[in-house]
Design brief:
about 300 residues, mainly beta, 19-stranded parallel beta sheet, 2 helices
Length: about 300
């Protein structure tokens, strides 16, 4: 089914298992209700959405008391080849520009987000709040704000699925008056329950802040999860009063391999290797595959199939 207008886009909510193709750029003109959200209930998207490289701009969602908030509420289908420009995404838990939750059957492929603000209380990410599915060759250029509790990342709040060949440029703010702000990571808040993140990076544009368990790349990596072939550039932008790391704040029964951090913060034992800018710029560090990564003089490594614009 062809999508040519804002009204066409809204109609996806009436056919959540359909196949849709975006034929043109769309600018949204009114506050958005996440596709699949109906009052306090949500229906997952199980179809396909092909953006064909077009852009959906003007996304503004204000659902401060709702779970699973984004362009789509919950994705169990395939969303691909679309750019999203958001003004502000506001929800309670599982909040992200593309989808609040990407479930085990869900795929996000070649989806790129620019957002002025993504805000929520827990599991808040620039691209997706909670990921249990597959995310590949996506990006998030966002500022993320968490107002309470836990689980915030520039790309994803919580991951137990697979994220690969993706990047984030971000800043993360918290309400310092809330004593429970914890599990904050530049790329992902928590990577757990056999989650895998490979060939990804984060560059901190603004402060990455929290009260407890703040990591330049991730707050937590645990329960059989893996982070490999990744890097984080945070320089002096990490702020935390307790348990801070340039890479991963807490690594419990997780695997970290070939990962690097450029930061003034310390790194924990056996996790990200702290390096100077010169060790990453213009070269590929140990473990980085030249078929996946590229190196240009004076630049940090870029993903060959998902270069930073």
């Amino acid at each position: 089914m062809a999508i040519n207008s804002e009204e066409d886009l809204k109609k996806i909510g009436q056919n959540m298992d359909g196949d849709f193709v975006l034929n043109d750029d769309i600018t949204l003109t009114s506050d958005w209700t996440p596709l699949g959200m109906d009052g306090d209930s949500t229906k997952p998207f199980t179809g396909t959405f092909d953006g064909q490289g077009h852009t959906i701009s003007g996304l503004n969602v204000s659902k401060s008391d709702k779970i699973s908030v984004g362009l789509f509420a919950v994705n169990s289908g395939t969303i691909q080849d679309v750019n999203i420009v958001a003004e502000e995404i506001l929800g309670s838990s599982s909040v992200g520009a593309v989808a609040g939750s990407n479930e085990a059957a869900g795929t996000l492929l070649n989806v790129h987000v620019t957002a002025e603000g993504v805000r929520g209380q827990s599991n808040v990410g620039g691209l997706v709040g909670t990921n249990r599915g597959n995310v590949s060759r996506c990006s998030a250029d966002t500022t993320v704000t968490v107002t309470a509790t836990q689980g915030v990342g520039g790309f994803a709040g919580d991951n137990s699925g697979v994220i690969e060949e993706s990047w984030a440029v971000t800043g993360i703010n918290v309400d310092q008056q809330q004593s429970t702000n914890l599990d904050v990571g530049g790329f992902v808040g928590s990577n757990q329950n056999s989650g895998t993140i490979r060939n990804c990076y984060v560059i901190a544009r603004d402060t990455i802040a929290g009260l407890f368990n703040v990591g330049g790349f991730a707050s937590l990596n645990q329960y059989g999860s893996t982070i490999e072939n990744c890097y984080a550039v945070t320089t002096d932008k990490i702020q935390c009063s307790d348990t801070v790391s340039a890479g991963v704040a807490v690594n419990e029964n997780g695997t970290i391999k070939n990962c690097y951090a450029v930061s003034t913060a310390a790194v924990g034992s056996g996790e990200f290797q702290k390096v100077e800018e010169s060790a990453l710029k213009g070269t590929l560090p140990q473990g980085f595959d030249a078929s996946v990564w590229t190196a240009a003089e004076g630049e940090y490594p870029q993903l060959a199939n998902n270069p930073q614009a």
